[in-house]
Predict the structure.
Amino acid sequence: MRWERWSALRDPTYTQIPSVPLLVKQDTRSYPRSVKVSLNGEHKEVADGACVADLIEQLTLGTKRLAVELNGEVLRKESWPERVLSDGDSIEIVHFVGGG
């Protein structure tokens, strides 16, 4: 008895499917990357390329009465958009509350 290939392969109207490699190809699609930071002692992932101002906005803290420290350096509010977060950064955010 002779084994025959699937009959669709002999059909002239059949469009051949490219051969499938045995090894799985690496996924080349682009996904949003993230960096891991420490925020007030807790681990958090933020988007790659995010700056301190983006983090403040994401946390919906507002910008009044905030003090931000990045890797031991207290940042002026004007520098928040310029300071891009990197993997392993340590951020401390303090919100001042008035009252007696």
